[in-house]
């Protein structure tokens, strides 16, 4: 144990001194010290102090097959031995890149034939943005360049993808968003539904897109980007009426529709794609995370027939793409991931009995005094913490209730993330039924501990 503690102290000190973490107040973290994660097995991670923690977030919504999957390790090893790297520039390809492009096309609706590789969800969305602009230039409509997304959208951190994202801390400190980006409201019924029932609200929220298109002028609007379920914005699950209406509006005004499937893709919502669960067909699909179950950094953009065939037929060079585009090791691991997903029925597992168990166990938490709403879609869930269930009154932000719940969850051996005071969960798709029961028990214990803390502080707001 002594050796462990020494190691932890050393890593924490080096981390504090040299390592800048994403989305972090650097000095704050340096003062508290990072938790050092050292191992993973199945749905469990272990830290350098020997704590075993149930990973209710599948890493960062990505480790769909759980940790320690031998077949993925072997795929990487064998590919590294055979051909560790070759690029896909200068008229070259590698077997894993070719096979993976075909495998992704095979998972998509007919006509989605053209796949471009990138290395992160951010890059995939930046690629999609550039492809949209490239497309409208080819079409001889260079004025059609405005991109619309939503205020609680998260599409990544590139200059374009961060501009598409709507979260305020990503904008002002970096002088973003760039020109050409507009944001509309979210289909967030619990907070913004007013007196409307879910389905009427879904239509009303979709019409905000129409209003924005008309405000900008349809001749200037290039595309609408959206996550089928908004993950980082707080697992915002739109009413069923929302996406078909969005698709209708895009068709009506000749606006391209881009589905950001970085979280939803590969089975998270109970079907392979979020757009299948929500019943619409996009023009472009971006994907990452689950594509390799998080074992390798890889992402892709899939083009439907309209954009795919147009850019394919262009005589202009598509002057875009990186050194790691179609990296053979990442592609080989992704191919093996898709094979395992298919063999084990994981593309639809979250839509079957395991998903039902997850939903019903979490729904039981709705009786907890701190819980305003529990919402679930496949293996995605949000638990809204409120002061007052009847009025939905939120806690004062300075009480940092969500962050405290996240820390308490860790004390109870559970990774659960906080978005404002919304607790979110996205466990590995392989989570066993007993682990789902255990996860729900740990969430309840966490909420009970939080309720005791808050009660000790008195008042309620
Ligand atoms: C919906 C969505 N799009 C894009 C991204 C960005 O992906 P990456 O972090 O791989 O750049 C994320 C990351 O969480 C995401 O959730």
Question: What's the quick description here?
Answer:
This protein has helices at 2-18, 26-32, 58-61, 70-83, 95-107, 121-138, 159-164, 189-192, 198-216, 242-252, 274-277, 305-313, 328-343, 353-363, 401-411, 433-457; strands spanning 37-41, 44-47, 52-55, 114-118, 146-150, 181-184, 221-226, 256-260, 284-287, 299-303, 371-377, 380-385, 414-415, 417-419, 422-425. With 461 residues, it is an alpha/beta fold.
Based on CA inertia axes, which overall geometry fits? globular
Bound molecules: pyridoxal-5'-phosphate
Computed structural class: alpha/beta
Residue ranges: pLDDT <50 for 5 or more in a row?
A: none
Give the assembly state of these chains. single chain
Strand order of the largest sheet: 4-10-9-8-7-5-6
Beta strands, count: 15
Mean pLDDT metric: 97
The main pleated sheet reads as: 7 strands, mixed
* Terminal-residue CA separation: 42 Å
Structure annotation, total helices: 16
Beta-strand proportion: 5-15%
Please tag this protein with its features.
16 helices, binds pyridoxal-5'-phosphate, single chain, 4-stranded mixed sheet, 461 residues, 7-stranded mixed sheet, alpha/beta, globular
């Amino acid at each position: 144990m002594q050796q462990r503690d020494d190691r932890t102290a050393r890593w924490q000190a080096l981390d504090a001194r040299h390592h800048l973490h994403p989305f972090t107040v650097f000095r704050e973290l340096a003062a508290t010290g990072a938790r050092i994660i050292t191992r993973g097995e199945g749905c469990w991670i272990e830290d350098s102090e020997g704590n075993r923690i149930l990973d209710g977030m599948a890493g960062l919504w990505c480790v769909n097959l759980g940790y320690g999957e031998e077949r993925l390790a072997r795929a990487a090893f064998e590919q590294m031995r055979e051909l560790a790297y070759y690029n896909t520039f200068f008229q070259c390809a590698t077997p894993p890149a070719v096979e993976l492009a075909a495998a992704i096309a095979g998972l998509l609706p007919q006509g989605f034939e053209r796949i471009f590789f990138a290395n992160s969800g951010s890059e995939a969305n930046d690629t999609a943005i550039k492809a949209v602009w490239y497309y409208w230039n080819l079409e001889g409509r260079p004025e059609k360049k405005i991109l619309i997304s939503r205020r609680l959208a998260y599409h990544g951190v590139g200059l374009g993808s961060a501009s598409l994202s709507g979260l305020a801390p990503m904008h002002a400190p970096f002088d973003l968003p760039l020109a050409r980006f507009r944001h509309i409201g979210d289909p967030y019924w619990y907070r913004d539904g007013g007196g409307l029932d879910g389905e009427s609200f879904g239509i009303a929220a979709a019409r905000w897109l129409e209003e924005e298109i008309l405000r900008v002028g349809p001749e200037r609007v290039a595309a609408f980007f959206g996550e089928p379920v908004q993950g980082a914005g707080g697992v915002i699950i739109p009413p069923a009426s929302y996406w078909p209406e969005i698709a209708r509006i895009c068709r009506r005004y000749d606006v391209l529709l881009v589905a950001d499937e970085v979280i939803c893709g590969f089975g998270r919502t109970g079907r392979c794609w979020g757009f299948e669960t929500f019943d619409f067909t996009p023009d472009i699909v971006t994907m990452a995370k689950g594509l390799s179950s998080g074992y390798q950094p890889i992402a892709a953009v899939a083009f439907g027939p309209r954009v795919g065939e147009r850019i394919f037929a262009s005589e202009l060079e598509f002057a875009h793409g990186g050194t790691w585009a179609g990296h053979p090791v990442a592609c080989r691991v992704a191919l093996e991931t898709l094979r395992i997903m298919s063999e084990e029925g994981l593309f639809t597992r979250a839509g079957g009995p395991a998903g039902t168990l997850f939903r019903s166990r979490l729904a039981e938490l709705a009786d907890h005094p701190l819980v305003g709403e529990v919402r679930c879609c496949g293996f995605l869930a949000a638990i809204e913490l409120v002061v007052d269930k009847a009025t939905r009154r939120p806690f004062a932000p300075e009480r940092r209730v969500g962050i405290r719940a996240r820390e308490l969850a860790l004390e109870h051996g559970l990774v659960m993330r906080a978005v404002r005071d919304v607790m979110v969960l996205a466990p590995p798709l392989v989570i066993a039924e007993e682990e789902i029961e255990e996860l729900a028990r740990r969430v309840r214990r966490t909420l009970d501990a939080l309720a005791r803390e808050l009660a000790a502080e008195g008042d309620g707001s």
